[in-house]
Amino acid sequence: MSTDQEPTFTVKLLHLLLLSTYWGMQIWVTFISSFVMDSNLNRHTYGFIQSRLVPFYLHLGSACAFFNLTIYAVYHPSNLLDDREAFQIFIFFVSVTVAAINAQWFGQITSEIMADMHLIEQACGLGQDIGLSSNREAYAKLCETDVKYKHLSGRLWLYRLLSSLCNLCCIGCNFYSLCYVAENIISL
Predict the structure, then answer these.
(1) Which of 53, 65, 146, 184 sits 20 to 30 Å CA-CA off 71?
(2) Are 157 and 72 in contact (CB under 8 A)?
């Protein structure tokens, strides 16, 4: 199905819309909304919103990455690729793979762990404090006294780290792709 023809205006527009939508979501979710919610919402409300918002963000992002790879690959047959085009396909492939792993595994497990932790915190009268960094002593004490909570806390830290690394990888891939598109624009 690949073609060596020039893509139509509609295909180019769709490619740019997908790339810019994913980039905008990444910047908003990663660098803006998380910090705003952290400083204005209680811990459980923040967690509830994140457990609904992040899976949607991750799945939509992986779909954008997949369709970008597909569109680009269709209009760049493998036998006609130069090194930069081959690397761009590799970047799209990395983005799709990492985004899908994050959406299907890390994001889902993180939400499940947070829900289990919230139940334990609620039973101990915690979770209504504003900001994730407030009342650290109470959560540290809960980790010391509740083995299950300590285990969940450790797993949450690990899966959040892995999910964040995946997210940063996808941000890097999209930044590279945006630079590649900007480099190939003939005029504004």
Answers:
(1) 53
(2) no
Spatial separation of the C-alpha atoms in residues 34 and 62, rounded to whole Å: 20
In the block, which residue shows the tokens 């932790």?
117
Would you call 125 helix, strand, or coil by DSSP?
coil
Contact between residue 44 and residue 127 where contact means Cβ atoms under 8 Å apart: yes
Angle, vertex CA 184, rays to CA 175 and CA 77, nearest 5: 90
Q: Record the tokens describing residue 34, joined without a space.
A: 């998380």
Q: Say if residues 154 and 10 touch (Cβ distance below 8 Å).
A: no
Structure tokens at 162: 């892995």
One DSSP character per residue, 145-183 reads H-HHHHHHHHHHHHHHHHHHHHHHHHHHHHHHHHHHHHH
Q: Assess contact for 186 and 154: CB atoms under 8 A.
A: no
- A 10 A CB-CB count for 154 gives 12
Give 43's Cβ-side CA count (13 Å radius): 18
Predicted TM-score of the model (pTM): 0.87
112-155 tens-digit pLDDT: 998 898 899 888 888 788 876 677 888 888 889 989 999 999 99
